[in-house]
Design brief:
With 180 residues, the protein is an all-alpha fold. The chain folds into two domains: 18-99; 113-157. It contains five helices and no strands.
Amino acid sequence: MVTKMKKASTAKKPDIPLSSSVKDSAQLIWQAGLGAFNKAQAEGTKAFEALVKEGVSFQRKTQSAAEEKLTEASSKISDMASGISSKATGQWDKLETIFEDRVAKALNKLGVPSGKDIDALIHRIDELNKSVQKLSAKSGPSSVAAKKPIKPAAKLATKSAVKPAAPRKRAKAKSVETPT
């Protein structure tokens, strides 16, 4: 019975409570929306600041990783360049040696004396000059050769290197008399 009465009482007031409850519901929804907006605004600022901090942290990490990779890459490139440079230098040295050997062989075939041959000849000429001076000193001061010193062959070689000597004609040998 009690349930029948409640149904009957609600059925008698249909316009007033329904419009009032709709207004109340709309008011509650509006207030919930304002509360959500306020909360989103407050938390949005905090969330934005947190995202900025995370972004700065991420940027630093990626920047340092990029710098490490760049340093590593430049080190590898530097090592490769020095390796290539040393190989190229070695090849140029080999090529230079081969060229020098071939030129020396060609000059030798043509009869051009080498630097070693010229040095040996200069040394022999210096020794012969010393021997001649000793012999001329023993023969006496009256000889012309003793009065005029002989220049070392090394000095003559430098002069002849600057100005080539003209070809000489062979002179006939004169008989030399030695005092007895």
